[in-house]
Specification:
Chain lengths: 167, 421
């Protein structure tokens, strides 16, 4: 998978209340959630984010609650990929389970700034910063997680297992 | 090889002789849960697979507790979806309004989550059950959906960190203060992906309510689980509640830990976490004068009977300061009933506090106590992120129930001794 887009940069410890405040959790509608994405951190984000844009952030992105509405809101906002120094563990699982590409890249997370144009190749694990003319390498996705992604997310993997168990 | 209790529980549930940190393992789960916010997404995912049955109807609990009694039409629709799913699959541990409580107080109380279990919950505070010596962790809705079908889940085995507490606790200091102190020391990602094991003479003497408060907030340090070895206190708590057999696991003395912290807490005063992070801690005696508008006593962290008793001891015969709203929320119906029988509710109402039916409500800015711009609250809850309890320009200070009660009386953040002296 390859992406190209403009970056929105956020800081450390971006919590799930910042990604999607709990006051909007009375719905599971992805578009509705997307319209409030990052609202309390950057009120302009939801209205100005373009399909394919990329989020870059510091340490512990997605900390706090287990709400899957957080990666769902980001995905539905059109964000192609999240790059962070590190991710909180539940957010990390949730993103893989629902097919939102995320990359742990401390170097990139530090160097990349808002509005930088990035080109990302997930398969080779390379981020090209076209604005700064820099390249960052990303840690490989663990084989089991690759299996999940190849199946199309956790539920597709489960469906395959259900079929196997029937046979 | 010597092992930590987390590694032993995971190995047994994976059907392996032993597991090592960073191994990816697929484990059998003993119990799974979801609530009115997370279960709807799980139910949608469940239905998309075409699954016709759950792995075990007696090992799944759905607890509407976040936005119920329904706060608005949209949440009523979500609660309805959970109710209908529970009915369709005949789930005995669906807890309706009137029977429900805050999930992490309710499930241990009902003996549904037990020592030695692997528990997953679509709620980050599922780690609370580590207080029983269970490997319990929060996951997302898709993981819950998969687990409801398969009865299994994949985990990366976490490295363990050991936190040893020694010394006798000062008056008005408890489990909440120990965990806030810990998070203040290691930071909100200080235990990211790790198992936090709490032990030592101070922990040995802690009642279950305080142990639950500690493990509840392990997630606030980024941990996968917070866990305490079961002992006679645990046995006393579970023996008459357990709905299934259970097993005590303990870490080997020479088990491998990634980090070991040893703290003497005999001088520790009650701890407050200042806006906007649980790691932003001060002892209450070091706090600058801080006027408040609201106090919330309750939540999965501190809504248990022992918490209410502590708050009532401070508030007995006194009145909430003018200009302050104090909201008390017993975490389950049983706690509500016991608090009534002990006269605690009378104490709160005479003090002019509002007493609510069990709900997570204000903790996550849902309802039942939302803050206006510029307002500050002291809460016995677990998070004080920007906008957590309401407007983005409001502030939340986290504390134990005695400090929250004292602050309600004083109209500013203060030590219980200031009220009682």
């Amino acid at each position: 998978m390859k992406f190209k887009g403009k970056t929105w940069k956020f800081g450390h410890d971006i919590d799930t209340d910042a990604i999607i405040p709990a006051r909007y959790l009375n719905t599971t509608d992805a578009k509705e959630l997307a319209s409030h994405c990052m609202e309390d951190s950057d009120p302009k984000f939801a209205s100005e984010v373009k399909p394919g844009d990329i989020i870059a952030a510091g340490k512990n992105f997605g900390c706090g609650s287990s709400r899957e509405h957080a990666p769902l809101a980001i995905k539905a906002a059109g964000v192609s990929c999240v790059i962070a120094h590190s991710f909180a563990r539940i957010f990390y699982r949730n993103a893989f389970n629902m097919g939102l590409p995320i990359l742990e890249c401390p170097e990139g997370a530090e160097r990349i700034q808002t509005a930088d144009e990035l080109q990302i190749d997930l398969d080779s694990g390379v981020i090209n910063n076209l604005t700064r003319n820099e390249t960052y390498r990303v840690e490989a996705v663990p084989p089991f997680m690759q299996k999940l992604l190849a199946a199309g997310g956790l539920m597709e993997y489960v469906r395959e297992q259900m079929l196997e168990n029937k046979e | 090889m010597p092992k930590t209790m987390s590694e032993k529980i995971l190995a047994d549930h994976a059907g392996k002789a032993e597991v090592f940190p960073q191994d990816l393992v697929e484990v059998r789960i003993d119990f799974a849960l979801g609530n009115d916010i997370t279960a709807p997404l799980a139910i949608e995912a469940f239905r998309r697979t075409g699954a016709k049955k759950v792995f075990d109807r007696e090992r799944i609990s759905l607890v509407p507790d976040h936005f119920v009694p329904n706060k608005d039409i949209a949440s009523a629709v979500q609660a309805q979806m959970v109710r209908e799913f529970a009915k369709e699959f005949d789930l005995p541990y669906y807890f309706e309004v009137g029977r429900m409580g805050i999930e992490h107080a309710l499930l241990p109380e009902q003996g549904l989550v037990l020592p030695g279990d692997v528990v997953i919950g679509a709620d980050s505070h599922t780690c609370t059950y580590g207080a029983l010596g269970a490997f319990a962790t929060g996951v997302g809705s898709t993981d819950l959906a998969a687990a409801m079908i398969m009865g299994r889940i994949w985990f990366k085995v976490p490295p363990s960190m050991k936190f040893t507490f020694s010394g006798k606790l000062r008056p008005w200091v408890g489990g909440k203060d120990l965990i806030l102190y810990t998070i203040g020391q290691i930071g909100v990602d200080g235990a990211r992906y790790r198992a936090m094991e709490f032990e030592g003479e101070t922990i040995d003497s802690l009642p279950m309510a305080d142990r639950f408060s500690m493990c509840n907030m392990a997630i606030e340090a980024g941990a996968k689980v917070g866990i305490i070895a079961p002992d006679s206190t645990t046995e006393e708590y579970v023996k008459n509640r357990a709905k299934r057999p259970y097993k005590f696991y303990r870490s080997d003395p020479d088990a491998v830990y990634e980090a070991i912290y040893e703290w003497d807490i005999s001088e520790l005063e009650p701890v407050v976490a200042l806006p906007h992070s649980p790691q932003n801690t001060k002892q209450v005696t070091e706090m600058p004068p801080t006027p408040i508008d609201q106090v919330v006593i309750g939540s999965c962290t501190n809504g248990r009977l022992e918490d209410l008793r502590m708050a009532a001891r401070v508030m007995k015969g006194r009145k909430v300061a003018r200009g302050v709203r104090c909201i008390v929320i017993p975490a389950t119906q049983q706690i509500y009933m016991e608090a009534m029988e002990e006269g605690l509710l009378e104490t709160f109402i005479e003090a002019q506090a509002a007493v609510s039916t069990p709900t997570c409500g204000p903790c996550l800015g849902g309802y039942m106590g939302i803050l206006a711009p510029g307002e500050s609250a002291v809460a016995t809850t677990n998070r004080n992120f920007v906008g957590r309890m309401g407007h983005v320009e409001s502030k939340v200070y986290l504390s134990n129930p005695a400090v929250a009660a004292a602050s309600a009386i004083l109209g500013r953040i203060g030590h219980p001794e200031e009220v009682l002296s």
